[in-house]
Amino acid sequence: MIQLFLFFLRMQKECQVCKLPSHGKHFGVNACRACAAFFRRTVVLGRRYVCRGGSENCNVSGKIICRGCRYRKCIAIGMTTENVQWNRDALSTTVQKLVTSCDADQCSKLDNASCTANVSIMEDLRKLFSQDRQQSCEDKGLLLQMFNALEGYRAIDGVQYVMDLETLEQQSVSQRTCLLGIANWMMSNKYFAMLPLQEKKLLFDGTWKQWLTFERAQMCVQVHGEIIQKHITAFVRRGSATKLDSIRSDFQSTADGPGEMRSVAEEDVSRVTEDVVEPLLDLNLDPHEISYVFNALVWHVEEQDVLESTRNTAEEVLDQISDELHEHYTYDLKMANYAARLNRILGLIWAIKKNQRVLLMICGTMAALGIKQEMLQD
């Protein structure tokens, strides 16, 4: 009876930010889930907003909310970051844009065959992005829908990580398969499928490398387990002196063309092990969390030159996957306090962005060579 009364009392209060029904105390004040999630993302991701109208006094109770004024009101009413113990180094790092488009200047640096292959891939992507999305009959949340789509990507024949290729034609086949597989995964999301064609291309160009980086790292850890953490440095040292010099990266960039593997510095390996490999091993992410990371990598569009409507769609997607993950922790896993775990997952996302190049080299190469336990033993 007391619990029912407390629940009723909580529901009678309104969010101090937007005046909608409160979901209880969040960051020290009564707030709805949406405003709490907005505040958390703003703090964790180090976002900086400006007032849309320039007055810095916008109404934040309407349907279209000024993010700058919304955050200022969060601070004004007393929202505190004391319970948001994020990785501050990661927050202070500005993520640089990934330049992956193949323009005329870039193509001039490649041989004719390479440029032709890249143009062909981009044409295939345009055709795919122009197709209507097939409606799913599954009554599942977005996170599980996208995890199922991920399993579909991993089941594609020809999706390979890093290969010793002799010809550009072989490399182009692998490149095309991976790119189209990632694009198909993105098109499985109804929000992405509804974007204008140019916005789809911008979002894809800006995030496919990050998507592939996490896919390789997560699969590498999933397949090889703790032995990766124990022997990864020795493997890279040994590989750099023997096999790495003869291996080509099949996925450095659709614009850069095939390139030789570069040596990996010991400090890079140590950083990747600490920031990415160890968290992946410790967290042992479940399908909801894996899908959350993939979607977060795609839909954080702060550094991309996309339309305001696309930014609003991205906010909607991030709100939805945050709510679904909250419900998964609360109702499926009965996890009363998941803040520390979520902190590590968000830190992992930024570590993937920060260590992208090294991760692609290490995890991609280990997957390509078919690493077995006896190969890594001292």
From TrEMBL:
<dbReference type="InterPro" id="IPR001628">
    <property type="entry name" value="Znf_hrmn_rcpt"/>
</dbReference>
<dbReference type="InterPro" id="IPR000536">
    <property type="entry name" value="Nucl_hrmn_rcpt_lig-bd"/>
</dbReference>
<dbReference type="GO" id="GO:0000978">
    <property type="term" value="F:RNA polymerase II cis-regulatory region sequence-specific DNA binding"/>
</dbReference>
<dbReference type="Pfam" id="PF00105">
    <property type="entry name" value="zf-C4"/>
</dbReference>
<dbReference type="InterPro" id="IPR013088">
    <property type="entry name" value="Znf_NHR/GATA"/>
</dbReference>
<keyword id="KW-0479">Metal-binding</keyword>
<feature type="domain" description="Nuclear receptor">
    <location>
        <begin position="12"/>
        <end position="86"/>
    </location>
</feature>
<dbReference type="InterPro" id="IPR049636">
    <property type="entry name" value="HNF4-like_DBD"/>
</dbReference>
<dbReference type="GO" id="GO:0008270">
    <property type="term" value="F:zinc ion binding"/>
</dbReference>
<dbReference type="InterPro" id="IPR051152">
    <property type="entry name" value="C.elegans_Orphan_NR"/>
</dbReference>
<feature type="domain" description="NR LBD">
    <location>
        <begin position="117"/>
        <end position="378"/>
    </location>
</feature>
<keyword id="KW-0675">Receptor</keyword>
<keyword id="KW-0804">Transcription</keyword>
<dbReference type="InterPro" id="IPR035500">
    <property type="entry name" value="NHR-like_dom_sf"/>
</dbReference>
<keyword id="KW-0805">Transcription regulation</keyword>
<dbReference type="GO" id="GO:0003700">
    <property type="term" value="F:DNA-binding transcription factor activity"/>
</dbReference>
<keyword id="KW-0862">Zinc</keyword>
<dbReference type="GO" id="GO:0005634">
    <property type="term" value="C:nucleus"/>
</dbReference>
<keyword id="KW-0238">DNA-binding</keyword>
<protein>
    <recommendedName>
        <fullName>Nuclear receptor domain-containing protein</fullName>
    </recommendedName>
</protein>
<keyword id="KW-0863">Zinc-finger</keyword>
<comment type="similarity">
    <text>Belongs to the nuclear hormone receptor family.</text>
</comment>
<dbReference type="Pfam" id="PF00104">
    <property type="entry name" value="Hormone_recep"/>
</dbReference>
<keyword id="KW-0539">Nucleus</keyword>
